[in-house]
Amino acid sequence: MAPSDPTGQAPFFIVQNTGSGRDNAQDVQATIRQVLDAAGRRHEFIAVDDGRQLTAAAQTAVERARRHDGIVVAAGGDGTLSAVAQVVLGTGLPFGILPQGTFNYFGRAYGIAQDTELATRCLLAAQPEPVQVGLVNGRIFLINASLGLYPQLLEDREAYKRRYGRSRSVALWSALVTMARAHRQLAVQLEHAGQSRTLRTPTIVVGNNALQLEQIGIAEADELQRGRLVAMGVKPVGTLAMYGLVLRGWLSRLGDAEHVFSFGFDRLTVRIGRSRRRVKVAMDGEIHWLDTPLEFTVSPQPLLLLVPPEAQRAEPA
């Protein structure tokens, strides 16, 4: 049962992934403690240093939040937020976030500051609002889910980050290097709205974040406001053309490219070849193997996200 006063004295149970984020995990925790202690707000950290431990940590946080009429909070990158949200969804508990990632699309879309101290202060005054999340084969994603080239980009990006550090420039450089290599084309069948379409493509991305879609120039971003998701894909192209698409994305004009297709949908089934029983899918930056076909839809239950008051919301940079 959700606490009757989620922004009053309800304790915070904070799941922190110390293995992710752009800042020192101990410094992050110290900053959060300092703000909450100064406000007299009860809190407890449930810290893990391995993303594989997040589900168990989130389950512990949910159990304690239910027992003490509390709130579950996730501190980490978008993958951490998604993993904790997977456990919180459907419990009726409010869900707070303290973004620590490279891009932080989920938090930025709802005006949640990227600065830890400011985000924690805003968390104290935040109110729960129902927000849409996507599902693929029953697993949630907050920002996007993808297959094909994009998961490979993410895997290479993590390797570059471990070597060169976490920054947007490192992420961009690793993407350019990945696209320079030969990549496979997927033979896919897309089924939605009673229609079927067969094509070859290097990647399919399903988006649930208006900020990200708007920044790359996808016109269907407003489909999210109607409770739908947005699918995007690329027709078979060479390396130079792929670089051109990246440039268009920087200029917020990706949707204008002749090689790109996109559409909104309520439910989408993706079938991949005849022999592919499982496929690698990236969800909010984390890689998973899922059985095919892939079924994409909006979760019938929203996530009760703690959102700052209008006056405290950060502008999405």
Automatic annotation (TrEMBL):
<dbReference type="GO" id="GO:0016301">
    <property type="term" value="F:kinase activity"/>
</dbReference>
<dbReference type="InterPro" id="IPR004363">
    <property type="entry name" value="Methylgl_synth"/>
</dbReference>
<dbReference type="Pfam" id="PF00781">
    <property type="entry name" value="DAGK_cat"/>
</dbReference>
<dbReference type="GO" id="GO:0008929">
    <property type="term" value="F:methylglyoxal synthase activity"/>
</dbReference>
<feature type="domain" description="DAGKc">
    <location>
        <begin position="7"/>
        <end position="140"/>
    </location>
</feature>
<dbReference type="InterPro" id="IPR001206">
    <property type="entry name" value="Diacylglycerol_kinase_cat_dom"/>
</dbReference>
<dbReference type="GO" id="GO:0005829">
    <property type="term" value="C:cytosol"/>
</dbReference>
<protein>
    <recommendedName>
        <fullName>DAGKc domain-containing protein</fullName>
    </recommendedName>
</protein>
<dbReference type="InterPro" id="IPR016064">
    <property type="entry name" value="NAD/diacylglycerol_kinase_sf"/>
</dbReference>
<dbReference type="InterPro" id="IPR017438">
    <property type="entry name" value="ATP-NAD_kinase_N"/>
</dbReference>
<dbReference type="GO" id="GO:0019242">
    <property type="term" value="P:methylglyoxal biosynthetic process"/>
</dbReference>
